[in-house]
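User: Structure with flavin mononucleotide, tokens only please.
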Amino acid sequence: MDLNRVQAVDDAIRSRHSVRAFLDTPVAAQIIQDILAVASRAPSGTNTQPWKVYIVSGKKRDEMVNRVCSAQLEVNANPELAQQYKETFAYYPQTWISPFIDRRRENGWGLYGLLNIQRGEKEKMAAQQLRNFKLFDAPVGLFFTVNKAMGIGSKMDIAMMIQNVMVAAKARGLDTCPQAAWNHFHPIVLDVLNASDDEELVCTVAIGYADPDAKVNTFITPREAVENFAVFLDE
Ligand SMILES: Cc1cc2nc3c(=O)[nH]c(=O)nc-3n(C[C@H](O)[C@H](O)[C@H](O)COP(=O)(O)O)c2cc1C
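Assistant:
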């Protein structure tokens, strides 16, 4: 075993966490190109490579952020409008069960606690939710789509590609936040991307240089011990 290699790979994986405050420092297009090239070594069922990714920065980023933030603000003012913005696939269950709901709550309240947002402070919660649609100030958003003709397995393939992107970014001093929040606003997102009718939005990744002074970026989430989720069978 090459211990340097183990350490390099493990460090990149372990140091990745969701960053929710970025500097406006631009990210060189060549770095994104390199990240995508290595990330595309991800496996995919029968090597279908079903991912398509839009790299959105500059004026296009601003257009995306402005349009989706406006839509979210309209929904906040008139919650009935949320009907227009349904996800195309259910990322979360309709009915939550333990232990997943407990972890979800712990995560949500942990983040809000760090940001001094107390229960019932709806305006502060809405403001934090809106930060999703500012890409947490990241200069680049990666919008992953899939051809609607593909099966659910393609979303697994794209998830593997995305994890590669996040780890490869980390190795290059960049941070990320995967975001399902944008999926609600897929009609607007796909319009801004000028995507074709056969594309479905799967996930968005904010990418950039983390703001080292932002308290929100000190949020590190726990993980279960291996024995709590792994079953070794040997007989
Ligand atoms: C597919 C996916 C979608 C996510 N969507 C969001 C999102 O919309 N907004 C957000 O702030 N975090 C989002 N997250 C980040 C999770 O909250 C985060 O991964 C989890 O709490 C574990 O923390 P860590 O990424 O810092 O290890 C998403 C994560 C994944 C994998």
